[in-house]
From TrEMBL:
InterPro entries: APOBEC/CMP_deaminase_Zn-bd (IPR016192), CMP_dCMP_dom (IPR002125), Cytidine_deaminase-like (IPR016193), tRNA_aden_deaminase (IPR028883)
Similarity section: Belongs to the cytidine and deoxycytidylate deaminase family. ADAT2 subfamily.
Domain CMP/dCMP-type deaminase: 3-112
High-level lineage: Bacteria, Bacillati, Bacillota, Bacilli, Bacillales
Gene Ontology MF terms in the entry: tRNA-specific adenosine-34 deaminase activity
PROSITE patterns reported in the protein's UniProt record: CYT_DCMP_DEAMINASES_1 (PS00903), CYT_DCMP_DEAMINASES_2 (PS51747)
Pfam families found in the cross-reference section: dCMP_cyt_deam_1
Name by which UniProt lists this protein: tRNA-specific adenosine deaminase
E.C. designation(s): 3.5.4.33
Gene encoding the protein: tadA
Amino acid sequence: MNSKDEIYMELAIAEAKKAEKINEVPIGAVLVKDGEIISTAFNLRESTQNAVTHAELLAIEKACEALGTWRLEGVELYVTLEPCPMCSGAILLSRIDRVVYGAKDPKAGCAGTLMNLLTDHRFNHQCQVVSGVLEERCGALLSSFFRNLRQRKKDEKKQKKGAME
């Protein structure tokens, strides 16, 4: 880990906070090439009701448009949560060179936790993976979001029960 990684992860955290403001799971992504930010994105799955609108996929799509190619060679991805199988597949297929993530995902992480698709030599491309960059902050953002979500649902349930009595 280096200070450059922390700087770009800060930007990914800022993207995640944008998601949180609109009641999306707070995950943010930033794509960088040669020290220049190519694209940024945050989760929009709840807003779009579309399973593929993860932060990484949206950022990859924007980067392909910006660079005019699907081959994102020389590009680094910074994301607040370990990529899932779908996002890991897109990362491989778009030829991203390096993936830096914050918090581990024990339920869907495919960059080292459940498996590591990104470094599997059976694929024709592998990525360098760096984990745990600003891990506590990335994890706290998610934990806080889900704790608040559970509390809101509990409060709504109480209100409905009270209205029925």
